[in-house]
Amino acid sequence: MAQQIQLRRDSAANWTALNPTLAQGELGYEIGVPGRVKIGDGASAWSDLAYLIGDEAAGGLTLVEVTAAMLQPTNGRQYIVSNDLALTAPSTPGSSVLWETRIYLREGATLAYPDGWRVSGSPSATGANQVTLSYLDGHWCLEWRAAFEMASGTRLYVSEDGDDSNDGYSWAQALRSPAAALTLAAAGAATEIWIATGTYNAGTLNGFEIPSGVTVYGGFLGTEQTLAERSYEAPEDSIGANSYANATTLTNTRSVLSTAAQAVTGKQVYGSAVPTVSGCRIADSFVGACTDLADSLQLVDCTITGNQHVGSNSFSGGGTINVRLQGCTVTDNTCDGYGGGMYGGTATNCLFTLNASGVSSGGGGGAASGSLYSCRMTQNAAYDGGGAHSCTCYSCLADGNTVTRYGGGYYSCTTYSCESIKNNIGSQAETYGGTSYWLLVFGMGTSTSYGLATGTHRSCIVANCSQATGNITGVNNTYLHLDTANASLTTAGTHRNNLAFGCGTMTWLGTASNNVYGVLTDFVSPLDLPDGLVGAANEDALLAAIRAHGYDLAAGATPIGQGSNTYATAETLDYQGRPRIVATVDCGAYEFQG
Q1: 410-424: pLDDT as tens digits
Q2: How far is CA 500 from CA 105, 205, 454, 489, in A?
Q3: Is pLDDT of 584 > 90?
Q4: pTM > 0.90
Q5: Is a pLDDT exceeding 80 seen at residue 98?
């Protein structure tokens, strides 16, 4: 009968617990998947001995305690991992790496794959990028064939302390220039770019080109892991101004921001495809800071300041051109054409202040040829349209702007529920031309403080102005506290269903019908002010009273039912947003609802 030789053998747990010292040349077999062998030296305890490594070239197994540097993509190898180990993978954007291997982990060990990468197939990712493995015969064990590829939504980081030779996927590996990050993003490496505090100059003709679907965030110290950790302050409303604890400034001698200049078919105006810059200061361009050439560039919570577009009266858009703004402050920008702050595009909840457009021609100190929602235009200057020129405006305020010629607040704009307050006009009115619905016009109580000129104005309130002038169409407006020395409403035009009171002797010029001259006793609220009160000393109180109480009609008031429904079909609501016609329409901006 043949002799059988049996090696000392035990489980990994028992070998570790007993920790014997093997004699010199003695073999110890650890039961497991796979089994492993150690050779004693007569002096070292079990835990201090290395495992026997097989001859891989001869087809044996390679069983090693691997390090991160050793664990690279490969085929047909087997590894044992005793401690936590981060799986490494190339950082080339858009690349993928095939793994086909068997990995054994000792109990309690974890295997993680790199941030910014995903694994398809098995294993699956759970929690903080941990690989889920199964427990088998004393080891965590898994055989898999998995492809590692760049994950969608990858974030790139930029810092003044960074280096463009870094991979850019963490603050520690941040890039130095936004341009480098944008190049990688355009190749599909990222949909977000985070830029730390500092000043970054594009140094190219078109500035920083923002690809479709990419969002650039500024305002970081360089340690944050979430957007909520940014410590800049965005404006709370349209009258606030941005201030940054950590200012990320993007600058250039020419355009600072642009989108790629290619034709786009069916471009997505809203949604993730829109290139976006958030929380940055955009400054010091000489040809307009931001230009959208194709992809509807969007700026969110940004400050656009100190930019110019000068040299010819055809140069429009000192700050932005055809860009969408949300919650931005646009200040101290200049152009020789139209739109000192903004030309074209859309602005929501933005502040336009201290901008200027052409002084001898052009217009729109704050904005021109765009759409404005809940914005404020203040202390801007222009030839025409101190606040806005040729814009469509919703719930906007133009106050304290100056013009050389026409339209201190609005020039040739279409306005809905807006205000034009105490603008320093030239030779014409606060609001000149265009079409206005539910507009509040409030002048400065002087003989040159005109309210309306030309255009069509419906269901508006004109207060504390000397008169309306020019060729206007006025329907269902309320004129009040006009300068008693200049009480006529217009030199020409058509006036229907209007109401005037507190104005001294009123003269309706032009074509007029169904207009009423009233007194304060015709109304619910006398605004806590005596009839006929005019003057700069009372302006703030009068404006506050109008905003707080309005000039609503009392039951039995003279203007009730004195209008003509024929002239009141263009607007369906009165100044308070109630039905415009109740039986026969009332004169003035308010409709009695009883």
Answers
A1: 999 999 999 999 897
A2: 88, 57, 18, 9
A3: yes
A4: no
A5: no
Q: What is the DSSP letter of 22?
A: P
Q: How far apart, in whole angstroms, are the C-alpha atoms of residue 256 and residue 279?
A: 15
In whole angstroms, what is the distance from residue 520 CA to residue 467 CA? 19
Comparing CA positions, the residue from 453, 432, 440 lying closest to residue 399 is: 440
Q: Rounded distance, CA 339 to CA 330, Å?
A: 11
Question: Nearest to residue 369, comparing CAs of 349, 342, 396?
Answer: 342
b/e per residue 505-514 (b: at least 16 CB within 10 A): ebebebebeb
Distance (Å, whole) CA 472 – CA 457: 8
3-state secondary structure 464-487: CCCCCEEEEEEECCEEECCCHHHC
**120: nearest Cα among 86, 154, 145:** 145
H runs (alpha helix) in 116-220: 178-186
CB 587 within 8 A of CB 498: yes
Residue 33's nearest CA partner among 74, 66, 76, 79 is 79
- Report the Cα–Cα distance between both ends of the chain, in Å, rounded: 119
How far apart are alpha carbons 309 and 305 in whole angstroms? 12
For tokens 């891989």, name the residue: 56
Task: Tell me what the mean pLDDT of segment 125-130 comes to.
Answer: 31
* Residue pointed to by tokens 């595009």: 345
Which of 61-65, 202-206, 243-247, 539-543 is the least confident region?
Answer: 61-65
Please write the tens of the pLDDT for every residue from 467-502.
Answer: 677 788 999 998 876 555 555 566 688 999 988 876
Residue 319's Cα: distance from chain center in Å? Answer: 16
Question: How far, in Å, CA of 297 to CA of 182, rounded?
Answer: 14
**Separation of alpha carbons 317 and 368, rounded Å:** 8
CA–CA gap between residue 350 and residue 302 (Å, rounded): 10
- Dihedral pair phi/psi, residue 291, rounded to 5°: -130, 125
